[in-house]
Amino acid sequence: MTQRTKTGTRLPAVVAWLLMMAVIIGSSPASAELLIRITEGADSAIPVAVVPFSESGNMPSGDKVSSIVRDDLTMSGEFRPLAPEKMLSLPSEGDEVYFRDWRLLGQRYVLVGQLTRQGDRVEARYELFDVNREQRIMGATASSSVNSTRSLAHHISDKVYEAITGVPGAFSTKLAYVTLQRSAGTSMYRLQVSDVDGKRARVRLESDEPILSPTWSPDGKKLAYVSFETGKPAIYIHELATGDRTRIADFPGLNSAPAFSKDGRSLLMTLSKDGNAEIYKMDIQSRSLKRLTNHWSIDTEPAWDHTGEGFFFTSDRSGGPQIYHKPTENAAPRRITFGSRYNARPRPGNDGEYVYYVHQRGSSFHIARTNLETQEETILTRTGSDESPSVSPNGRMLIYATKQGGDSVLTVIAADGGAAYSLPASEGDVRDPAWSPIVR
Amino acid sequence: MKVTAHHKLFAMVLSLGLIAGCSSIGETTEDGAYDSDVSAVDQDGGSTVYGGDDEGGVSSSEMTEEQRREAEARAERAEREAMRDITTFYFDFDTAEIKSEAREVLVAHARYLQANPNQDVRIEGHADERGTKEYNLALGERRANAIERFLIVNGASRGQTETISYGEEKPAVMGSSESAWAQNRRVELVFQ
Q1: What is the mean pLDDT of residues A161-181?
Q2: How far is A440 from A393, CA to CA, in rounded Å?
Q3: What is the mean pLDDT of residues A31-35?
Q4: Domain residue extents for chain A
Q5: Do B145 and A233 touch (CB under 8 A)?
Q6: Can you tell me whether residue A163 is helix, strand or coil?
Q7: Which residues of chain B does A387 touch, with a Cβ-Cβ cutoff of 8 Å?
């Protein structure tokens, strides 16, 4: 259904009703779950044994906590978990761990644990051992409701990851993305949120007009995105817990590329209401606008830098799209990329060392990064139609959209290149991934 | 689609040329039947019957000249009419430059809009799938704006036009080939 209305024209009630029906703010559960395909692991991956946890009491059916932890660690590309059938013993507490056995199996770390059912909750007690040093390096308990042992497993993965690497894990974070199914002249866009392994996907918005550019608020409770549901692009803020939505920007022309500020109070966005695509900052409460770029060229795709004071953006002021950085809102922009004639859609790493973006090389589009200090540019992907990079909140991984056999899929790689897994949709395209912040 | 439109246009121009040829040696009555003929031609938009069987018709050179001009104008109008079948305009990668072959057709659209002030047009800008979605939204808008400016400069009024960019979201042709991309980098005029 396409809408051909101009601003100000009144829609007949029936049409208005149909329009509302075209946009379903959704709770259809797990309708289009992503699959997961682990394509490679890094050679330097650390061998780790995640021993199946002992269980007392009635446990929920479905994937075991320890196997989810194993999958998480594998996905990171930094670990190579041992298959349980190769284990010589299955200890569930420290006294039962014989380091000699694990050393024989070439393991660096061993995780053991017990799960106990307590009413409608499941409690996990778990311990992590360093095999070479024969030391217990972590012991903790955590619990979850019976229905969310997946969250419990991701939490344990985060703790294990942090204990070994010193960097917080990002397995409990979420992905927002858009799936697109086209059939016989109609399109169905679905904004979804899932775990980082693609599980527990839920549709949050459904429309036969485009949905684009989802982005997270810093508290992980809201998404901002662009939807064409009225026939024209507008920016919405969507409360995930309640499904409440606010149409925050609906100016003539473009309303696109929203990005929350660090304090969550303002949004960067691209508007063309003053003639061509420029970047503005909107105070969400008052809706007042401040214009941050002023050039006849296209300025778009803003992303705050790690300081929260400055921002990166794409501009074609040099003739083709390139990445620029403004260290403060009012500073002069500095050009960052020079390596090819098309560099766009910057996303900063979490510590200010790198900026990631889409880079054209020959006829291919890759994800690349530039070291902001040395200016050194590295191409990170081997696929060739790559888009929409989003860096994990711990800075260790990167998700992007690429093509596989004609369909768009999400692919996760280590932020320095390396290991990868992909998340194809069971049907159609999946695109525009946005990695949530870590919420404590 | 493009080819069909061109063929049609070519056929129209040919037939118009023929008509113009006829009229230059055409016979008309001296009593002003000429004028009524012209208005009849205008009314049924190009199907023409000249003269009648008055073999002794006199034609002054002045009238022939005028007649020729009229015929030319008619031909031009019909040609423009035919050109307006073309409503999709193509662009090169990452540009919003209107191709020279599109200009004449766009002038035809602009004149039509000028002559029909109640006619609105929606100018839809598109990009191919390469590059980034948000940049492509801006690029689609730049293309739509370029076409809008051209229409306005050539006679359309601002109130008649509306632009929207879909970026890479609504490809005309599915697929990831050079030919699909070329057909997707476009602006479409939708008359409402």
Answers
A1: 96
A2: 12
A3: 63
A4: 13-34+172-435, 43-165
A5: no
A6: helix
A7: 131-133
Least Cα distance to A209 among A435, A3, A415, A418 occurs for A3
Q: DSSP assignment of A1-19, as one string?
A: ----PPTTPPPPHHHHHHH
| Distance separating alpha carbons of residues A381 and A369, to the nearest angstrom | 10
Name the nearest CA neighbour of A381 among A327, A355, A334, A418.
A418
The CATH homologous superfamily of the domain defined by B88-191:
OmpA-like domain (3.30.1330.60)
User: For A13-34+172-435, CATH number?
Assistant: 2.120.10.30
Top-tier CATH class for A43-165: alpha beta
Q: Would you give the distance in Å from CA A306 to the centre of its chain?
A: 17
Nearest Cα of chain A lies from the Cα of B129 at a distance, in angstroms, of 9
State which residue of chain B sits closest to A315, comparing Cα positions. Answer: B135
- Cα–Cα distance list, A295 to A170, A257, A318, A332 (Å): 38, 18, 11, 12
Q: What pLDDT does residue A327 have?
A: 96
Residue-wise pLDDT for A228-247, tens only, equals: 999 999 999 999 999 999 99
How many Cα atoms within 13 Å fall on the side-chain side of residue A103? 9
**Average pLDDT taken over every residue of chain B:** 76
* Token pair belonging to A28: 């259809």
Domain segments of chain B: what residues?
Answer: 2-83, 88-191
Output A364-368 pairs: Cβ under 8 A, ≥24 positions apart.
A365/B130, A365/B131, A367/A398, A367/A400, A367/A413, A368/A339, A368/A343
